[in-house]
Structures are given as structure tokens and as C-alpha cells.
């Protein structure tokens, strides 16, 4: 899980760089990362916490996707985009063009990508902490 998070962090950093053609590469890596998370998370939850309350645990895992979308897209990304759009609209008013708030350039999303990469690295660190804490248990079970 930690490896997947690191791969996704590098994909977000690569996307923040705004190089030509990067969207295709980033889409592949983010897709692989999200697919791997959805494949690994249920088995990890059942392995760590047992099957007695697996339904509740799986629902807790599944609620992470819409909750993360709300926080990252609805609050963080939109707030940053609106900030830079308002900043650029001041320039548009100065030159006499009146349009809706739009943001042009990589500045609109690069900070959001860096924030997402940071959260991926925090998730990777937390995954490694879980590995360290469960290493002894797995050594006794399968060692």
C-alpha cells in the first residue's frame, strides 16, 4: 500500500510540473494506484480487524472516496482555483475584458497537486507504521 501511495505522489508531482503530454502518463499511474487501493483495502481491513465486522469496515473504506472528493475537490481544489481565477480576473479588468472567472495556466492546479502528493506521502508513512506494528504478529503466525 505504501508503494502505491508513493507512486501516486510522484504522479501528482509530475502533473504539477505542467509538461506536454503528461496527462496520459498521470492518468495511467493514478488509475493503477486507485485500482490497487480498491483491491488491497478490503483484504487489508479483513486481515487486520477480522471478518466479524467486515461489512461496517468495508462501508467505512467505501465512504472515503466520496468524503475525499468532497474535501479535495469541493474545498481545497475549488478554493485554490477560485483564488487564482480572481487574481487573474483583476488583470482582465485592467485590460478591459469582462468574462466569467476562469484561470489559465498550471498555477490553477499545481498547488492542489502538491497538496495531494503530500497527503499521499502521509498515507505512505501511515502504511509503513501499520507494517511495523503488525510485523511481530505476522512473524508469529506465519514465521
TrEMBL record:
One of the record's GO cellular component terms: membrane
Transmembrane segments: 23-45, 57-84, 104-131
Keyword Iron in record: no
Chief location of this protein within or outside the cell: membrane
InterPro entries named among the record's database cross-references: MFS_trans_sf, NFD4_C
Superkingdom, taxonomy of origin: Eukaryota
Keywords: Membrane, Transmembrane, Transmembrane helix
Membrane-related topology note: Multi-pass membrane protein
Pfam families xref list: NFD4_C (PF23262)
Domain NFD4 C-terminal: residue ranges: 6-138
Cellular localisation: Membrane
The UniProt record lists the keyword Transmembrane helix: yes
Full protein name: NFD4 C-terminal domain-containing protein
Biological source species: Dipteronia sinensis
